[in-house]
Amino acid sequence: MTHASDPGIAFDEELGAWIVDGHEEFLAVSRSTAFNIPKLTLPPELLVNVGKVDIDPVQEQSDYVLLYSVGADHRRRRRFLAGHFTRQAVDGRRESIRKTVRELLTEGQRAGRIDLTADITRPLLTRIMSDVVGIPPALRGEFDEWAHAVTNAGQLGVQGSPAEALHRAAESVNAITQLVRDLLGSPVDLPRGSILSYAAGRSSDAASLSVEELAANVRSIYSSGIETTEYLVASTAYMIFSSPSALRDLRAYPSRIEAVVRETLRFACPAVEIPVRRANRDVRIFNSLIREGDWVRLVALKAERDSRRFSCPDEFDHRRTDQSMPLTYGLGPHRCLGQHLATAIAEEVGRTLADPEYGAHMDTPFPGFRRRAALPVIWGPEWIHLALA
Question: For residue 246, is it within any domain?
Fold first, then answer.
C-alpha cells in the first residue's frame, strides 16, 4: 500500500521506504545533501551462524570504499583516484580496447559463433580493469577469484545462500590487502598508468591513501567495472541487433554508436536501482516531506521511462532528441567514478560488432533480461549469442 504524493515519489508502507521513480524526483534526491548511502546490516540469523570474527574484515574494508565514505575522507579518496577515469584518460585507452575486441572476435570467427559475455566481454573487462587498477598479468587469476568472492557475498541476502560465502569473502579481503602491500613494496612490475603504480610513486605524499584504503577501492573499482559494465555491453549489443535501423545506421555511420549507447542506458538501464539512501535530516522533495531516518529507494529503470520527461518512453529510439544524462551512473558526490570508462567500453564493443567485416547477427537462443543474484540491483541479458561470418 502506498500513500499518494508527487507522481514520481510515494511512500510504500509494506517496504517501509520512499520509492522514487520519476525523472525529476530522482534528480532532486540524488543531488540533495540530505541523503547518505548507509552500509546495510547483515541479517541477525547470519550473525549468529558465522560470528563476528568472520565479518570484521568485510565490514572494516567497506569503511574505506568510496560508495560508503562521506565528508573529507570521501573527497580525499575521490581526488586521489579520479585522474584515472577522466574523459582524457579513458580516451587514451580506446585504441587498446578496440585492439583487444578485434583479437577476441577473430578467435570467435574461427568457430563462427560466440557468446558475447563469455567470449568477449568478460575477458576484455578482466584485462582492462586489471590494467586500470594495477594487477600484473601473472597475478590476475588469483585477484579475480578474490574480488568475485567478495562480490558474491551479496548472495547472503538471498534465501538459502550458504554462510560459507562470507568466510570466503573475509579470506579474500585479507588476501587482497596483502597483495596490495606486496605490490607497493615492489612496484617495478605494476602496469604503467595504473592506480597502484600512481600510488607507489606517491607513497610519501601526505595526500596518498593507506594500504587498506587502496586495497578496498582497488577491489571495489575492479568488481564494479566488470559486474556492471558487462550488462551494459550485453544490453547495447541486444539493442543493436534487435533494432534493424540501429544496425543500418551504425554500419553506415559508426560514430552513431554514442547515441545508441546513450539510448541503451535510458531504455535498458543496467541499474534497476542505484544504492539506497537514508535521510540525515527532514527534507522536502517537491511536495513530499521525507523525515530524518527515512529510507529512499531510487528506481532508475522506471525514472528513465518517465513519460513526463521522454516522448514514447517505452520505445528504443537512438535518434531521439530528448536524451538526457544517464541516471544509471548516479549523480552528486557519489556518482560512478568509472562512468566514462564503462560508456567507452560499450561504445567500442558495439562499434566493432556492427562492422560489416564480421557479418554478426543475433543467434538463438535469444536472451531474457534478468537480475543478478549477487547484485540484484543490476539487470540485463545473461548471454548474447552471435553468429559471425
Answer: yes
| 162 exposure class (CB count in 10 Å sphere: 0-12, 13-18, 19+) | exposed
Task: Answer yes or no: is 68 within a domain.
Answer: yes
- pLDDT bracket for residue 158 (50, 70, 90): very low
Per-residue pLDDT reduced to its tens digit, 353-367: 999 999 999 998 898
**What total of structural domains would you count in the chain?**
1
In terms of residue numbers, what domain contains 163? 38-277+339-387
pLDDT digits 0-9 by tens, 17-64? 999 999 999 999 999 989 988 876 555 555 545 555 456 666 677 788
Is 221 within 8 Å of 338 (Cβ atoms)? yes
Contact 367, 382 (CB under 8 A): yes
Rounded to whole angstroms, the Cα distance separating 216 from 92 reads: 25
- In terms of pTM, does the model score above 0.85? yes
Q: Are 81 and 221 spatial neighbours (Cβ–Cβ below 8 Å)?
A: yes
CA distance 112 to 94: 26
> Which amino acid is residue 361, in one-letter code?
H
Task: Provide the CATH number for the domain around residue 134.
Answer: 1.10.630.10
Inside any domain, residue 295: no
C-alpha cell at 135: 594487477
Is 161 domain-assigned? Answer: yes
